[in-house]
Write a structure and sequence with these properties.
The chain has 276 residues and is an all-alpha fold. The chain has one domain: Na+/H+ antiporter like fold (Up-down Bundle). The protein has twelve helices and no strands. Helix 1 packs across helix 7, helix 5 runs antiparallel to helix 10 and helix 8 packs across helix 12. The longest helix has 35 residues.
């Protein structure tokens, strides 16, 4: 219960802080990001899930571990990506747009991809409505509130955004610490091949910005950080609904630990490239 509370607070505060950082002039320039959005869709709903599947198969990891990593790879739009975009000093407007669109699309595409993976026929209206409401209240609404503060109360947003980001950072640190305390022993017992599969998948998820030759550093950083942070809540929900195996749920949490650790390193590297 505590870890879920921390993840909810992390989602709310990171999206609120991201909205507060988006300038008015950036709001009207979102159409210029259309090619980036197309590439992000291809990467997050095609290349990354396929990479996770073939990597897991090549390493011959267990079926439940493969399902866990595949679910994470097919669940983009994690709200805490907003915090990492800010940490990497990326483009807040692009970061917010990517998170909002990927999160909206994953309500349909992620269950569909997972259903195809399992040999099912795809779309479920009840599941779509549930995921849509979760995504709106945990990501869409706080982003809109942040934008409202930036647009109508810019001075308040300037002051408040720093405290919101500090709170997000605290929630993230506590989440990682709690994951280590509660599930660290189990994670160590998973075996090196599952760890390699998770690390490899996370590294692929964090790398699309490196392929944007000629783009600005802020654009590359935003795409990489948003793509790297998966929606663990969505992956856990689908695992609870369709798999219901302890190994699957705990492997997803292990993936989250690896994801946050490597994302923090990548965010630092992107930030240092700006100051270099």
């Amino acid at each position: 219960m505590l870890i879920r509370t921390l993840l909810v607070l992390l989602s709310l505060s990171s999206m609120l802080g991201l909205g507060m950082r988006i300038e008015r002039k950036e709001i009207g320039s979102w159409t210029q990001f259309a090619p980036i959005l197309g590439f992000a869709f291809l990467w997050n709903f095609g290349i990354l899930p396929a990479s996770a599947f073939y990597l897991g198969k090549s390493l011959s990891i267990s079926e439940f571990a493969l399902i866990s990593i595949f679910l994470c790879s097919a669940s983009p739009g994690g709200a805490s990506g907003g915090l990492f975009v800010l940490t990497a000093q990326g483009n807040p407007a692009l970061g917010g747009l990517l998170i909002a669109i990927l999160n909206g699309a994953n309500t349909v595409l992620t269950p569909l991809i997972f259903s195809i993976y399992q040999g099912g026929d795809g779309f479920s209206l009840d599941l779509f409505l549930k995921l849509f409401m979760i995504g709106f209240f945990l990501q869409g609404l706080p982003l809109l509130v942040g934008l409202g503060f930036r647009y109508f109360f810019s001075k308040i947003a300037d002051v408040s955004s720093e405290w919101v980001e500090r709170f997000s950072t605290l929630c993230l640190a506590l989440s990682i610490l709690l994951l280590i305390i509660q599930y660290g022993e189990f994670a160590l017992s998973l075996g090196p091949l599952i760890w390699i599969a998770a690390i490899g998948t996370v590294l692929v998820s964090l790398s699309p910005g490196l392929l944007l030759f000629g783009s600005e550093r802020e654009t590359k950083a935003s795409l990489s950080m948003v793509s790297g942070i998966r929606s663990l809540s969505l992956a856990l929900l689908l695992a609870e609904l369709h798999v219901r195996q302890k190994e699957t749920l705990l492997t997803i949490l292990m993936y989250g630990l690896v994801m946050y650790a490597l994302a923090a390193v990548f965010a630092w590297v992107w930030k240092e490239r700006k100051s270099a």
